[in-house]
Amino acid sequence: MAPAALAPSPITPTVDFDRDGVQHGFLRLPYSRDDSAWGSVMIPLTVVRNGSGPTALLTGANHGDEYEGAVALFDLAQTLTADRVAGRVIIVPAMNYPAFQAGTRTSPIDKGNLNRSFPGRPDGTVTQKIADYFTRELLPLADLVMDIHSGGRTLDFVPFAAAHILPDKDQEARCFAAVAAFAAPFSMRMLEIDAVGMYDTAAEELGKTFVTTELGGGGTGRAETIAIAKRGVRNVLRHAGILTDGQAGGSQSVGGQPAEASRWLDMPSADCFRFAEDSGLIEACVDLGQPVRKGDLLARIHPIGRTGLAPAEYRAALDGILAARHFPGLVKAGDCIAVVGTVES
Ligand code: CA
């Protein structure tokens, strides 16, 4: 017996995706609650369309405490004009808007982690309804999908754009060409700890050209990483032929200084990740971007219950650079404390 058809999404866009010009509006998601019986979650979005052509779908704050994407996309939405577009750009600066408003990774409404909620459900929680709308309504409109992440409150990364190894090698090549066009300081072949339920997976399974990033972290944005996001988004739109502003792409012009060429990193196996098996006070022994050799000390974790106890030592399992680290000074068993990326020759 065929599975029952899914109900229509309860989300209503206040824009017409097929109209030319610039429209600023919302995805309106009904959310009945104590302080607003017939209330809604209003997710801001902008659509810029100029004739037929490819569509780019750009998102930030999939996790609500990651800011480079939100800043770059609120800025793009406010400045992009239709005469500079060939095709269509759909901009959602804060994808999990309730989480973004709360400054938290997950939604305060339902504790939903949007990037573990795909493909979503039209009759599920608020977070599941957002995922479902992207899966069934927005992703099918798109040719190019870019989701801008950072580390949030608990992780910090060297700034990189990334794509995944995919079974369809033509699609994989399109994704890595877009990563190269982004021209972040680092470009990553990314291995996911937990790919089930990710937006990435939903976009890739629909055959889209998908680019993600990790541009910093610690629950804030820095001038450097925000500039990388703003430049990278425009670079990828030019690469796709959607942004036609006549400017050169590439890695130039961070603060007027030519940036160095992007360095390619790989995550060849789960040995990249170091997870804490102890709780306590973390002592960083290597900073982000520094080279490490297999066996080098990455961090020590000091027990904090009493003095006189030796710290636990965490060492690199392969050669590379420190690409990510736990951000807060206290760690719990199970936390990811370090990621070593290998440097491609
Ligand atoms: Ca994230």
Named CATH architecture of the largest domain: 3-Layer(aba) Sandwich
The H-level CATH homologous superfamily of the largest domain, spelled out, is: Zn peptidases
- Could you say what the CATH topology of the largest domain is called? Aminopeptidase
**Poorly predicted ranges (pLDDT <50, ≥5 residues)?**
252-258
Main sheet attributes: strand count, strand direction, barrel closure: 15 strands, mixed
| CATH top level class name of the largest domain | Alpha Beta
The helical percent reads 10-25%
Shape: globular
Which kinds of small molecule does this entry bind, naming each only once? calcium ion
Task: Enumerate how many helices there are, as a single number.
Answer: 6
Strand content: 25-35%
Report, as a whole number of angstroms, the end-to-end distance: 53 Å
What structural class do the secondary elements suggest? alpha+beta
The topology string of helices and strands comes to EEEEHEHHEEEHEHEHEEEEEEEEE
Describe the structure.
- The protein starts with 11 loop residues before the first strand and ends with a strand.
- Strand 8 (160-164), helix 4 and strand 9 form a beta-alpha-beta unit.
- With 345 residues, it is α+β, with helices and mostly antiparallel strands.
- It has helices at residues 68-79, 97-102, 126-138, 169-182, 199-205, 223-239; strands at residues 12-13, 21-30, 40-50, 55-60, 87-92, 144-149, 155-157, 160-164, 186-190, 209-214, 263-266, 273-275, 280-284, 291-292, 297-302, 312-315, 320-326, 330-331, 336-343.
- It folds into two domains: 12-263, Aminopeptidase (3-Layer(aba) Sandwich); 270-343, RNA polymerase II/Efflux pump adaptor protein, barrel-sandwich hybrid domain (OB fold (Dihydrolipoamide Acetyltransferase, E2P)).
- It is built from six helices and 19 strands.
- The chain has a 15-stranded mixed β-sheet that branches. It has a four-stranded antiparallel β-sheet with strand order 16-15-13-18, with no helix packed on it.
- Bound molecules: calcium ion.
- Calcium ion binds at residues 63, 66, 149, 152.
